[in-house]
Amino acid sequence: MSLRTVLTNGTVVTGYAKLKDCALYIDERGEIGDIFNMRRLPEKKFPSDTTMIDVQGSFIMPGFIDSHIHGIGGYGTEDCQVDSILKMSERLADFGISAFMPTIYTDKLDVMLAGIKAIVEAMGKEEGAKIMGVNIEGPFISIERIGAQNPEGVIPVDLDIFNQLIDAGEGKVICMTVAPELKHMRELALLARERNIVLLAGHTNASYENIMEGMQCGIFHSTHFFNAMSRLHHRNPGTVGAILIQRDMQCEVICDGVHVHPELIKMLLREKPVDNIVMITDSLKPTKQQGGKLMANGEECYVGPDGAFISKKDPSLFLGSGLTMLQGMKNVVDWEIPIQQASQMSSTNPARIYSFQKQGMLVPGYKADIVVLDDRMQLKGLFVDGNLIRDRFA
Fold it and tell me: What is the tens place of the pLDDT at every residue in 324-365?
């Protein structure tokens, strides 16, 4: 079956601009062959096996990249099973995600290693969203900002254990969340740079000065901004203040309206270049689960009134997100953030920060990872490497 497809009558959001009344051509290599105004369509000559799809004014955008996600649909990284990771891939495609980074919780070392190995073994076998590599959250984090991580897994900085975790990934580990204030963090950061691992400041009780020291040794990204980090104070700006003040500091943000108030996200966009903001879900295993007991990292939970997951054993314990990237996109647009900025946050920026080649933008020669959304931000179609894997155009 030919990959050649022309999407016509759409608004193309390229990752840097919004182009109305345009068409996009996917070539036989599964790459973007051309983007052109609809006025030029009659002069274009395509091979006879080219499929023409009229998207009827929908948005044609780079496929979403979820760079921080623990699970969905009743499947999660904590299962430490190849099948669970592949089921995540299938389910994520229903929500416009073309690529994702399964994220390992802080846990006992053997559990973390098993989770990493399952992700690596699943890579290349996906039938939905592509697995780009492994995101490790911890274990060198602050016990004071533990969040939903397993406190039994939190340990001091240990370069040997760092190497064990990275080695288990067989070159597929992309990033790790750390607390910059920990002793020996500088040595770990320099080793991470040698091994091409992106470090994020998160689950941290760092002072402003600690974050500055982290930046000096290469920690320029941060995990779920505002959540599980030291707060802004007028005498100590903390991690939140450092991220706001330092424009070069990048940050993830969960756009569910619960983890971070929408007005704070709009403030963040005023204070920081949009290039340095990454939309994530941080979604948990029971997100969009159909029936059965809801479990998140071994903890039974229920869905709270705002859509997030709450511990059944301790209703005061907020476990995390039930967000999808599709809902995150709708939320951001509803908050009157321009769709081209939302696309940068959900696709372009993670692709650049994590060095994903020819991804995250709609540019000739780039991979045809494309999501098509109508004006209500509902999924119409999803292409991964030029293959139409979700077809809701009818």
Answer: 999 999 999 999 999 999 999 999 999 999 999 999 999 999
Is-contact 12 18, C-beta < 8 A? yes
- pLDDT per residue as tens digits for the range 14-67: 998 999 999 999 999 999 999 999 999 999 999 999 999 999 999 999 999 999
For residues 332 and 185, membership in a common domain is answered with: yes
Q: Supply the pTM of this predicted model.
A: 0.97
Residue in 42, 60, 26 with CA at minimum distance from that of residue 364? 26
CATH of the domain at 55: 2.30.40.10
Residue 137: which domain range? 64-292+321-353
The pLDDT value given to residue 1: 53
Question: Is the domain of 36 the same as that of 128?
Answer: no
* The two three-digit tokens of residue 258, written as one number: 């619960």
CA separation for the pair 162, 146 (Å, rounded): 19
